[in-house]
Structure formats: C-alpha cells, structure tokens
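User: Show me a protein chain along with its predicted structure.
Assistant: Here is one chain, sequence first, then structure tokens.
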Amino acid sequence: MASMRLRKFLSLGVLTVAVGCGAEDPPPADGSPAASPGGTGTAAWVARPAGPGLEGHVIDLARERAARPWQPRARRIDDEVSALTYGQMRGIRFRRDSAVWRGSGPFELQFFHPGGGNDLPVRIHLVEDGRSEEIPFRPGDFRYGDEVRGMTLDVPADAGYAGFRILHPMNDPGRMDEIVSFLGASYFRLLGQGQV
C-alpha cells in the first residue's frame, strides 16, 4: 500500500516539478491576470483546486508548454552563489526540522540550496487543502557551515530551490531515509531498501 501511494505521489510530483521549472509564463490568452502563488510577481503555476482532475491538468499544462518555443528564465541568484564549489555546497545543509510534513506522515520533503552550477532553481509548489501554493526560498531552513563562513549568499525568496528530496522510513521504522532526489536539470537518484 505504501509503495502504491509513493508511486502515485512521485508520478504527480515529478510532473508538477517538470511543469513548474520552465520559462516564465506569459499572461493568460484571455487577458486576465495570471495567478501568482507565494506573491512572487510572476506566474509559474496557475492556481487550481486539487482533486481527481489535477493529474490531467498537470499533463495538459506540460503539453501546452512543450508546444511553445522555449525561452530561458532570467538567473535569480548572484555570481557568488553561482560560483560555489562542490565542497562549499556540501557545507550547506537543509535543517531536518524544517522538512515539509515532518512528523505528520510517512514522507518528508527537503530542499537543496541553489548555487554551485545550479543557476536556475526550480520553484516548488505544494497542493494542499485544495490549493497549489509556492514554497518561497527561506535561508533559515539551511545550516551554513564553515565552508561558506563570511560569504554573502543572497538568494531572493522567489528564486526557488536547486531541487528536492523525499524521505521515508525505508530501512528502519525510526529513521527517515532518502528515497529520491532531483537536483538541477539532469541529476536524479532513486534508492531502494538497503541501497546507498
């Protein structure tokens, strides 16, 4: 049962992220103002009630975007964040106590800090209580280690994240294990029970 829930969650979640990481959306064709969840000032997602039709909506939106010419998004992070090395990026850790759904279900959602070559972060949206809402970038959700001490790492709240990972108690009922990660445009990793 849990694996079926995870498959459904992942299939819709991956589609949602794929739809949300493209170019900025133009205003709707009918001239109405575009939805702007999270107060970002640009629409990356049309707010829509959740329900049985949500998956079809995400698929239709992906098809619509695929039919339009691609336009690159403007970079939202500064040069110092962009130039972070692999070692410096490893010194920036998501705070476990900031995880989405922490302690309230079988899954937790954590985010990766932008930078180190991930110059075009994705904006993450959650569908809860019948609404899609953007999660703004929050520096307080990260621990900044000695590797980046003294650096100014300004990331606007509407810039988004470099990616996300999902945790689930797969190997030990008392510990949340990473089961899937998506980082940047091309990195992903899925882990099964007992794998590292």
